[in-house]
Amino acid sequence: MAERKKEWYVLRAISGKEAKVKELLDAAIKNTDLGNYVSQVLIPTEKVVTTRNGKRVVKERNLYSGYVFVEADLQGEVMHELRNTTNVIDFLGGRGKGSQPEPLRHSEVMRMLGAADEINDLNDDGFNDFMVGEHVKVTFGPFSGFNGEIVDLDAEKRKLKVEVKIFGRSTPLELEASQVERELAK
């Protein structure tokens, strides 16, 4: 028997339960013959960086709330099993009795996968952009507005050690990359 081509479909899930749906489907793929028909289950997420009380907080947020992407070959009971997974409402585009869900177009799949990859690559807090000896201006915190020079980079803590002059004395500050900006050459 020739293997049929798997296509991407969108499952509508209860908002906030997307991770649970993915967990259930991944378990079913491993432990049942559903793995022969379903190859991937994805929830595209993005990393959101916020500053709370002066500390950088990174959270993951769903790009498409209420949707789970599934690469599957919908033959036999596969569609029924996917539809009847806990917290799944139905397929997107599969309305009405006996209707077949519509697969995503290739361009939509590439955009969805590309967006997920780009966002994962953006785990960039700007730390790697700085070098020892570079002049920077403090933009956040009690020393905002002071100029200084980077004297050390702590890769483990992702911190910069910047020496600024306060009342004519050099004072070391430990800052995050988001708290400083490059000083423009004069």
Automatic annotation (TrEMBL):
Q: What does this protein do?
A: Participates in transcription elongation, termination and antitermination.
- List, for all copies, the residue spans of the domain called NusG-like N-terminal: 5-116
Q: GO cellular component annotations, sorted alphabetically?
A: cytosol
Please provide the record's keywords in A-Z order. Transcription, Transcription antitermination, Transcription regulation, Transcription termination
CDD domains, per database record: KOW_NusG (cd06091), NGN_Bact_1 (cd09891)
Q: Which domain of life is it from?
A: Bacteria
NCBIfam families listed in its UniProt record: nusG
Its name, as the record gives it, is Transcription termination/antitermination protein NusG
Q: Which Gene Ontology BP annotations are present?
A: DNA-templated transcription elongation; DNA-templated transcription termination; regulation of DNA-templated transcription elongation; transcription antitermination
Listed HAMAP family? NusG
Ranges for domain KOW come to 129-156
| Similarity field | Belongs to the NusG family.
Asked whether the keyword Transcription is assigned, the reply is yes
